[in-house]
Amino acid sequence: MKTPDSRFYCPLITEGTIVLDENESSHAVRVCRAANGDILQLCDGLGHYADATITKADAKACEVQVDKVEDAPLKRPRLNLGIACLKDDALEEVVFHVAQTETDSIVFLRTDYSQEPKNSDLHKLVRRSELKSLVSLKQSKKAWMTRIEGPIEFSKWLENYQGDLILCDIDGDRHLNLEDSENAADGTPAKPITLLVGPEGGFSPREIEKIKTFQNGKVHLLNLGNTRLRARTAAVIALGKIL
């Protein structure tokens, strides 16, 4: 028996017989050339895994047998990315890279300086980004799929947000110590942390003031160096400093 070097997405993993959807079935049977008796690694993006033995290698409806469902050893990530809507395919590029890391969600924000394409259909953008996140889940072998949220007005999002913030700022620290934001002594879950990345040109002065005076969590300032970075680059560099 062989195990393809990939995970296969199954939104509901249970013990017993499972029929994979056509996309996953085709990937297993046609692309990976899996056959009866081979083992597939299933994941649901919600912290569950299973080794599944193929009982019917059908490229349209592959049947597998699951004997045991396992929980991931790591809890759901608490780090999120809030990024302004960008032009062209920049957001999809950001999702492609970020969704391979232990990032819980990516929120698309409508900011004062957002550079969205004219007549853009962000519903299509969100859907394409969700598909990229799914591909990244399987490729990176993560336990938790990065969720795609928004687009939402930045002011409205900030008003309802409860948690800590990280803002990229020239006057910030080169390295952040987030250990003081871990779980409380009573065992209650730690607050989420959201890294904020503005559009090309950054957040507006009004938005920066709102971030720095935020009252529903701590605000950390992170310095990314002495050069000016594109928004898509800043998001990846900043996450690399935090993770």
Describe this structure in words.
The chain is of the alpha/beta class and 243 residues long. It folds into 2 domains: 7-71, Ribosomal Protein L25, Chain P; 79-242, 3-Layer(aba) Sandwich (Alpha/beta knot), CATH 3.40.1280. Helix content is 27%, strand content 28%. It contains 6 helices and 11 strands. It has a 6-stranded parallel β-sheet with strand order 8-7-6-10-9-11. Strands 1-3-4-5-2 form a 5-stranded mixed β-sheet. Strand 6, helix 2 and strand 7 form a beta-alpha-beta unit. Helix 2 (90-98) packs parallel to helix 3 (122-140) and helix 2 runs parallel beside helix 6. The longest helix has 19 residues, at 122-140.
Keywords summarizing the entry:
single chain, 6-stranded parallel β-sheet, alpha/beta, Ribosomal Protein L25, Chain P, 28% strand, 243 residues, Alpha/beta knot, elongated, 5-stranded mixed β-sheet
Give the topology, please:
Blueprint: E1 7-9, E2 16-19, H1 22-31, E3 39-43, E4 48-56, E5 63-71, E6 79-84, H2 90-98, E7 105-110, H3 122-140, E8 147-153, H4 154-160, E9 164-173, E10 193-197, H5 205-212, E11 219-222, H6 231-242
Parallel strand pairs: 1-3, 6-7, 6-10, 7-8, 9-10, 9-11
Antiparallel strand pairs: 2-5, 3-4, 4-5
Helix pairs in contact: 2-3, 2-6
CATH fourth-tier homologous superfamily of the largest domain: SPOUT methyltransferase, trefoil knot domain
Low-confidence stretches: none
The major pleated sheet works out as:
6 strands, parallel
Helix content: 25-40%
Overall pLDDT metric: 91
Element order: H for helix, E for strand: EEHEEEEHEHEHEEHEH
Shape: elongated
Per DSSP, what share of the residues sits in E-state strands of 2 or more residues? 25-35%
Q: What is the terminal separation in angstroms?
A: 36 Å
Per CATH, the architecture of the largest domain is 3-Layer(aba) Sandwich
Tell me the domain tally.
2
Spatial arrangement of strands, main beta sheet: 8-7-6-10-9-11
Please give the number of β-strands.
Answer: 11
Which CATH class of the largest domain applies here?
A: Alpha Beta
* CATH topology assignment of the largest domain: Alpha/beta knot
Radius of gyration: 20 Å
Number of helices: 6
Structural class: alpha/beta
